[in-house]
DNA sequence: TTAACTTTCCCAAAATGTGGGAAACGGCGC
DNA sequence: GCGCCGTTTCCCACATTTTGGGAAAGTTAA
């Protein structure tokens, strides 16, 4: 909601939407204080890991009192910490909670047990374990070297854990997306058709459906030079132990010039076997 | 506050507190909805990484409506994610934010550059980098092996990052505590005297002050068999680049039987040199 | 499909967040 | 150590919002 300014043009009006509605009619209700407080967290970026209370007032339209009220509540919860006078950064609670997730995440544990061997089989190549949360795909773990030598460059994926991936692009995401239950995909399509089209997934429902069905049939997505001009990626879904749903995706990333190597089918097979091993270890 | 039920007995009444006050008088104001919503995050533990909405209602005294309202707000912010019907877990946003902290944290970056060499110098031993946030000490990074062989056992500190350390116990914390500006220590003493006493820091202000002054003079804390019966730890403060304040602490952990080794003074010197290197690299 | 459950929606009443300013606090320079 | 200034909390009347009970809508499993 926050990313869609009123001036943006919607590609197509949703069927059933009231036409001729006055411009200022708010589509969504005004956010309550709860949501407003959590917007504070949006303000932190790699470029601005420390934020001043004045900036919050300015950017989010808070009054002094409100800004400090929110900051205090978040500080007391440990989500924020005072960096110095008037400046606040993200707090220790986030690191603690993330550790909790790391400890509790069965996918990560299974991956940590299985992936090292897989990663070691191919030098100058890394393995990514990704997961879907709600409607976001995140890299959960990387195994193998931090960087790959490709196209004469050294391409590194540093600090992979927590790296957000676009939901409608990239092998790791598409493989997950395609494995979702159809109604869920349909719901996503209705909500985010424009994004899907922009990502080249298809302009209408039929096209998207067909594209994803194809991926589901293949059981893999291979991209060459999409994520990075010099890299290739092969991705397969990781299913839950009972096989009923997707738990995430397993991706092998290598130099584009190394793909297809001697036996791409074998590479794929090995990846799928590993994904099955991970599945088998899920709680 | 949530951990202090009304039935608990306070060890000692704070000086200046109104005596003879009727039992039901709330010492602190009733928490607002902002704080209440954030209490939801407290409910997640390693044993219970997934929580049901019913449990929230029961444990926190919410009504159905309120519970779902809070959960929805937290979900929309990405702090929570729906695991399955009626069950929620911590959300992707936490992993993302933690990554942001990892990227932005100068202490961690400096540590990652300097610590590997230090860790490699002594086998069967690890190095911990810790940091103070607000009034919590957290392990920020571990370098070296995941486990130490000591006392015939294999003692592992797995997933060190995010591990919370008690503020008034342990070499890593004490070294930081002692390096804090005196007014800050004094404030902590007033607020948490009982905890300090329980941790053996001293029963009154004079004792605490003296103890910490001693640590400050030494520039290190060494404990043997405190954190774990079979382990020894030597900890030194890491100062900010200008040396004006503490940025964290650097700790060498080793088997208790290996300390003191040939030259404990050299070990300490090396640690302090490394801490200085880290300081020099701080932004 | 039914059945059981989860989740959202609705609305009047009441509780609580809001905001302006003043007061307390705390760091920094002199 | 003292005083200055920006930061942070406190205060309180007002009204905007949260609240909660139940009903409706949505989702999953059988």
TrEMBL record, chains A, B:
Residue ranges of domain HTH iclR-type in the record: 31-92
TM helices/strands, residue ranges: none
Species annotation: Falsiroseomonas frigidaquae
Residue ranges constituting the IclR-ED domain according to the UniProt record: 93-283
InterPro entries for this protein: GAF-like_dom_sf, HTH_MetabolicPath_Reg, Tscrpt_reg_IclR_C, Tscrpt_reg_IclR_N, WH-like_DNA-bd_sf, WH_DNA-bd_sf
Pfam families for this protein: HTH_IclR, IclR_C
SMART domains the record matches: HTH_ICLR
Classification lineage: Bacteria, Pseudomonadati, Pseudomonadota, Alphaproteobacteria, Acetobacterales
Record-given protein name: Helix-turn-helix domain-containing protein
UniProt-listed PANTHER family: HELIX-TURN-HELIX TRANSCRIPTIONAL REGULATOR, ICLR FAMILY, HTH-TYPE TRANSCRIPTIONAL REPRESSOR ALLR
Alphabetical UniProt keywords: DNA-binding, Transcription, Transcription regulation
């Amino acid at each position: 909601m926050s990313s869609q300014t009123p001036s943006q043009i919607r590609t197509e009006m949703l069927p059933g939407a009231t036409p001729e509605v006055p411009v200022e009619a708010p589509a969504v209700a005004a956010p309550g204080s709860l949501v407003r407080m959590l917007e504070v967290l949006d303000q932190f970026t790699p470029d601005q890991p420390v934020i001043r209370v004045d900036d919050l007032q300015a950017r989010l339209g808070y009054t002094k009192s409100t800004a400090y009220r929110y900051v205090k509540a978040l500080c007391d919860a440990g989500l924020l910490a005072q960096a110095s006078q008037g400046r606040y950064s993200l707090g220790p609670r986030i690191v603690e909670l993330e550790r909790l997730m790391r400890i509790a995440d069965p996918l990560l544990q299974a991956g940590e047990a299985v992936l090292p061997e897989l990663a070691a089989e191919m030098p100058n190549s890394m393995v990514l374990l990704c997961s879907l949360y709600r409607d976001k795909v995140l890299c959960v773990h990387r195994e193998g070297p931090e960087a790959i030598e490709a196209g004469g460059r050294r391409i590194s994926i540093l600090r992979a854990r927590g790296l957000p991936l676009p939901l409608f692009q990239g092998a790791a995401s598409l493989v997950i997306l395609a494995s979702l239950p159809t109604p869920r995909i349909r719901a996503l399509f209705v909500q985010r058709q424009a994004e899907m089209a922009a990502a080249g997934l298809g302009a209408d429902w039929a096209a998207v459906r067909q594209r994803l069905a194809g991926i589901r049939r293949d059981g893999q997505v291979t991209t060459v030079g999409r994520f990075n001009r010099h890299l290739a990626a092969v991705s397969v879904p990781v299913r839950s132990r009972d096989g009923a749903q997707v738990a995430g995706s397993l991706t092998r990333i290598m130099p584009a010039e190394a793909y297809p190597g001697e036996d791409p089918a074998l590479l794929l097979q090995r990846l799928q076997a590993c994904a099955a091993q991970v599945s088998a270890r899920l709680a």
